[in-house]
Design goal:
The protein has helices spanning about 1-15, 30-40, 45-50, 70-80, 155-165, and strands at about 20-25, 50-60, 80-90, 100-105, 110-120, 130-140, 145-150. With about 170 residues, it is α+β, with helices and mostly antiparallel strands. The chain has one domain: Nuclear Transport Factor 2, Chain: A (Roll), CATH 3.10.450.50. Strands 1, 2, 3, 4, 5, 6 and 7 form a 7-stranded mixed sheet that branches. A hairpin with a 5-residue loop joins β5 and β6 (about 130-140). The longest helix is centred in the N-terminal third of the chain and has 14 residues, at about 1-15. The protein is globular.
């Protein structure tokens, strides 16, 4: 009888161990992305590069990737063409700037998902922008960002085109 009881307790303990996908909100990777976004808002490209793998691939509404050098230029172009850049989520008083969650899977794959509104004013047009964004970060085995997938960047091209028009 004691053996059956021990066997039952063992099965119950094993059944209580979490399996499958684990979603976290205040873990090391989620917090690293929050700091990453602060570096973006401050135009701190070196701070951004500290989290990127040297082999980083960024897909911005495209199936073709750009690398670290191009991404760095892209960030600088944002700050050259827009003022008062900030990332927002929800109401100002809810204490959440950006929605960030990290999913860890049984196979070792880890991805951080983020949602926010990108808010800024175009320096060339004077237009105000409030663009919904979703960015997915895929982590490598060294704790660096290996891939980024950006959704929502198409609307920003309008201001970049205005910058080109004003240079001609």
């Amino acid at each position: 009888m004691k053996n059956y009881l021990l066997l039952l307790i063992t099965f119950l303990c094993i059944g209580c161990v979490p399996t499958g996908t684990i979603i976290t909100f205040d873990d090391e990777k989620s917090n690293a992305i929050r700091a990453h976004y602060q570096n973006y808002e401050a135009n701190n490209v070196e701070g951004l590069q500290a989290l990127w793998s040297s082999e980083l691939e960024l897909y911005a509404n495209s199936t073709e990737a750009i690398g670290v050098a191009e991404i760095s230029d892209f960030v600088n172009a944002h700050h050259e063409n827009f003022s008062d850049i900030k990332l927002t989520w929800g109401e100002e008083d809810d204490g959440i700037d950006v929605w960030v969650e990290t999913a860890s899977y049984d196979n070792g794959f880890t991805v951080t998902q983020t949602w926010f509104n990108w808010v800024a004013t175009g320096k060339n047009s004077g237009d105000s922008y409030n663009v919904p964004f979703h960015i997915t970060f895929v982590w490598d085995e060294n704790g660096k960002i290996a891939q980024e997938y950006h959704f929502g960047v198409d609307q920003l091209e309008k201001e970049m085109a205005a910058a080109s028009d004003s240079e001609e």
